[in-house]
Amino acid sequence: MNMVIGLSLIVLFTFGVPIAISIVLASIIGIEFFTRLPLLLVPQQMFIGIDKFPLMAIPFFILAGNLMAAGGISQRLVDLAKSIVGRVQGGLAMSCVLTCMMFAAVSGSSVATTFAIGAILIPAMVKHGYPKPLAASIQASSAELGVLIPPSIPLILYGVSTDTSIGQLFLAGIGPGILIGMALIIFLYLFCKVRGYGKDDYKDSTGFMISLKRAWVALLMPVVVIGGIYGGIFTPTEASAVAVFFALIVGAFYYRELKLADLGPILRQSVISTAAVMLIIASAALFSFLLSRTGLPAQIATLVTNTIESPMMFLLVVNALLLIVGMFIETSAAILVLAPILTPIAIQFGIHPVHFGLVMVVNLALGMITPPLGVNLFAACAVAKISIDQMLPWLVRFVLVVLACLMAITYMPWISMGLVNIFYG
Length: 425
Description:
Membrane topology: Multi-pass membrane protein
GO molecular function, one term: transmembrane transporter activity
Number of strands: 0
Organism: Vreelandella aquamarina
Protein name: TRAP transporter large permease protein
Strand content: under 5%
Radius of gyration: 21 Å
InterPro entries: DctM, TRAP_DctM
Structural class: mainly alpha
């Protein structure tokens, strides 16, 4: 049965059927022809998959990100980042990374970060002489931080699917997010120096104090959201609703850029994005139920534990597997299907589930900037109005930088677990 389901998925993917629909159809084939279970299980298991309180954070964080983009918060974060690094050669490229780090501290979505920040910075970089494919590659790679720096939708999904503390996962995401962000900034500084890009970046930057004065309220948003979680004031799910309220009040009444007429399109876009994510979660829950019935997770666990002897080798194999999976399967679906299988095995090898969660998410985040199904690539291409093949020669450099960071995160657990150990002992 497992082979038939796998072949069904491959065929459906080949014909361009959306991932969520492909998973549901393959699951229906498995249930109908290889079990005696009623098809009533399909809607039942899909509903069970999304009937979890922590998942309520996803639509709220998506809505918060869209409100930030429309309410002027994104522009002010860009201006602040440019005031910090904009006077250095390549400062505009580096400010893209820095802005994405700040925006990610509330939005939780890399795609939302790509559209919100890319719409501002990609045209600005092109205006300053950066090749358009390079500008799009910088934006796509920087937006990856949206799934690492808390709050993070993939980390929420990992926590829900493996029963791991979402609060600890959020805390563990800070170190890897900063590491990758700083690595990209250092690389861009050296790259622009060698290639001669960004010599005039200083022309559009404003003074730091002026930009800080304009952006200080926007900067309060991650402080309120993240501080509230770790201060015990509210849960990560409740924090998502606070983020929406904060973005709405600041955009409408403080910056006065968010109008009543904007709310309709914002809510519509948020509903569409939420529906797409939730459909993937529901279909993955059905698929996971079917796999559990076949005993495949236990078979994989036995195979891995019998053939791999050390935790280091296990992590290496998992990284290789996830790199391939991330290229072809959407991050949310990959986490929901693979995390319940791989995490118990990791625990058997003595790997902390929080650390393993960060390894999984960082690895699958690479899939967002690698073809053929890199969602960040499609988003950046849409903003820059170019094709993916134009980006690829530039993109390789950024993929290698993130890969180096992934190896450090994998084999240096303190990068992700340092803050967790401090706060949770």
